[in-house]
Specification:
Low-confidence stretches: 1-10
Strand content: under 5%
Largest sheet: none
Number of helices: 8
Mean pLDDT: 93
Number of strands: 0
Structural class: mainly alpha
Shape: elongated
Distance between the termini: 43 Å
Length: about 190
């Protein structure tokens, strides 16, 4: 004989697990969108005041798994006056890597915000803080580890230095701000 208390659909832990799953899913979606905001800023910075080429940030990220030749070629082309050198394969790889990492960090933030039961304004503020945490983890742990694991070398290990710390921090603040804004909007809707 089965009772309603033993049914998994009425278990309080199942409801909490489902809520955490939804928080992770929404966080991943918001993190993906926020990674696009970050990428747009990085690409505009690269094409303007950095003068390294509009698509160079994508090639830079792709050099985690492929030789940095496309990144270097893009930078050389920008130096020669062509800021829009494009190579589909490395650009697509860079987008996929960037969005996957953004989704992962977003899922972690979404779960943390859910567990902490943050209200919308707190989610927005915490998102900016999370952007700085992601900056620190990426700069001093994630990128050096990825460089070692996937033989990405100096372009990956030293990405923050190559991009410039002010720009790299700004990119991550935009990521965190967009992530927090998207999740705060969702809480208010």
């Amino acid at each position: 004989m089965t009772t309603s208390a033993s049914s998994s659909s009425s278990s309080p832990s199942t409801g909490a697990g489902r809520a955490i799953g939804f928080a992770a899913g929404w966080g991943a979606l918001a993190g993906t969108a926020a990674s696009l905001v970050m990428a747009i800023y990085a690409m505009i910075a690269a094409a303007t005041y950095q003068d390294t080429g509009f698509f160079t940030p994508l090639y830079h990220i792709a050099s985690t798994f492929i030789a940095p030749d496309t990144m270097m070629n893009s930078m050389q082309q920008a130096g020669a006056g062509d800021s829009f050198f494009f190579s589909f394969g490395p650009a697509a790889l860079g987008v996929v890597i960037h969005m996957a990492v953004g989704a992962g960090y977003g899922a972690l933030f979404g779960v943390g915000a859910r567990v902490a039961r943050m209200h919308a304004a707190a989610v927005l503020a915490a998102g900016l803080g999370w952007g700085l945490v992601v900056f620190a983890i990426s700069t001093w742990i994630g990128l050096p580890l990825a460089a070692a694991l996937f033989d990405g070398g100096d372009p990956i290990r030293d990405m923050a230095d190559m991009v410039g710390y002010p720009t790299f921090v700004g990119e991550h603040l935009l990521y965190g701000g967009a992530l927090g804004a998207i999740l705060a909007y969702r809480r208010n809707s």
